[in-house]
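Lecture notes, continued. The same structure-token format from the folding unit now serves as the input rather than the output. Read the line below as a description of shape only.
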């Protein structure tokens, strides 16, 4: 009997015992659904979280001067205090890095400022920051209304500002704020944009909601009692390029800061990719757990399938005897029952893969929005497991059918 005829015979047998076959295939489909569904959900959630981490700065790093360290180092020596990064050094770094990364320079102006507009004023909890053209993109702040600073405003240090949603509501309510003026730190600024509401910020400081952003040059001319401290944030487009760009940035910054070859770095570089690394470790552990859950479910499915095949061999004992009497060999009988078990598994597995992919992508929607993920690797793995389960579950019943004596089989009632 050829392979094609064995497959046809398997479908005829399935059609003859439809309810039993459907129940068995459903058991297999549940096992495959749990395995493929869990792995798909993990991959989809990882993709969605990677997109979120990227927008939160996971593909970026910060550079700041090494400050004074109150803790004693080994040997009782205090940590060395290095001078802050100057505006000239930050500009030189940005120019020399070029297109390798998107460099944003900002300076903290005030953290407890009042903003006034007419008779209205905010609480003294508004953060004032001066930034360049890349500040909003690197911080993932989005404009809800208005526009960003023009190149002329950035170069001339014009008194224009972008305000947070909470500042806008406090000063102007539901009215439009574009083109109107506010007063802060003794200066008058024209509003050109309003940021989208973020809801919260790091450290509970309100994030973008309580922020007033001005051009970097304007911040340099604001009255102050001490020199500004400049923050440098560099973002890369591809996560794989992060460490390469960091190495480039370290060499450029050492040259800009004029660090001697024998001297340690006078600055610190802090990368945000630790979130992505922790996510990789967590997803690996979750996948291992998914394999365990799927294996246990498939083990139960394989036992159920083996039991069904044993019942099928018993019910078809007389049929086996007739086939052997007509010249069928033990190998052909074994192939017939093995293929039947594999067909049942593949039918159930195909349904389980469809349900698993759908379930995995549905679960990922609870974490964040992302594109529909088609896990070809897990789908191929699911089909391979189906064939393996069919072989493992059908081999013993097939061997038992092949070993039946034809004379005794013909006498079986």
């Amino acid at each position: 009997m050829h392979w094609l005829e064995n497959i046809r015979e398997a479908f005829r047998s399935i059609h003859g015992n439809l309810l039993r076959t459907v129940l068995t295939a459903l058991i297999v489909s549940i096992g495959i659904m749990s395995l493929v569904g869990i792995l798909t959900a993990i991959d989809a959630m990882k993709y969605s979280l990677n997109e979120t981490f990227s927008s939160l700065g996971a593909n970026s790093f910060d550079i700041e001067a090494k400050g004074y360290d109150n803790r004693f180092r080994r040997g009782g020596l205090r940590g060395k205090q290095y001078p802050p990064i100057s505006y000239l050094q930050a500009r030189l770094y940005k120019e020399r890095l070029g297109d390798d990364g998107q460099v944003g320079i900002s300076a903290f102006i005030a953290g407890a400022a009042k903003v006034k507009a007419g008779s209205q004023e905010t609480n003294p909890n508004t953060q004032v920051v001066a930034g360049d053209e890349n500040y909003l993109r690197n911080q993932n702040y989005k404009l809800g209304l208005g526009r960003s600073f023009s190149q002329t405003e950035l170069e001339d240090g014009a008194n224009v500002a972008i305000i947070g949603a909470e500042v806008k509501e406090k000063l102007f309510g539901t009215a439009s704020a574009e083109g109107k003026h506010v007063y802060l730190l003794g200066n008058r600024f024209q509003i050109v944009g309003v940021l989208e509401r973020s809801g919260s910020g790091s450290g509970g400081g309100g994030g973008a909601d309580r922020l007033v952003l001005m051009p970097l040059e304007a911040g340099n001319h604001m009255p102050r009692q001490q020199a500004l401290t400049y923050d440098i944030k560099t973002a890369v487009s591809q996560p794989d390029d992060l460490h390469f760009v960091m190495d480039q940035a370290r060499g450029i910054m050492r040259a800009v800061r004029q660090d001697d070859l024998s001297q340690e770095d006078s600055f610190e570089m802090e990368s945000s990719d630790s979130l992505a690394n922790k996510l990789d470790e967590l997803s690996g552990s979750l996948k291992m757990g998914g394999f365990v859950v799927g294996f246990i479910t498939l083990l139960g499915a394989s036992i159920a399938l083996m039991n069904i095949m044993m019942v099928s061999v018993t019910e078809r004992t007389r049929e086996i005897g007739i086939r052997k009497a007509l010249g069928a060999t033990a190998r052909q009988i074994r192939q017939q029952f093995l293929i039947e078990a594999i067909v049942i598994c593949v039918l159930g597995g195909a349904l389980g893969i469809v349900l698993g992919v759908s379930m995995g992508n549905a679960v990922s929607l609870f974490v964040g929005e992302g594109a529909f993920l088609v896990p070809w690797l897990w789908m191929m793995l699911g089909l391979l497991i189906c064939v393996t389960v069919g072989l493992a579950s059908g081999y013993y019943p097939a061997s038992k059918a092949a070993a039946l004596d034809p004379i005794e089989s013909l006498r079986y009632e």
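Point for the exam: The mean pLDDT is 78.
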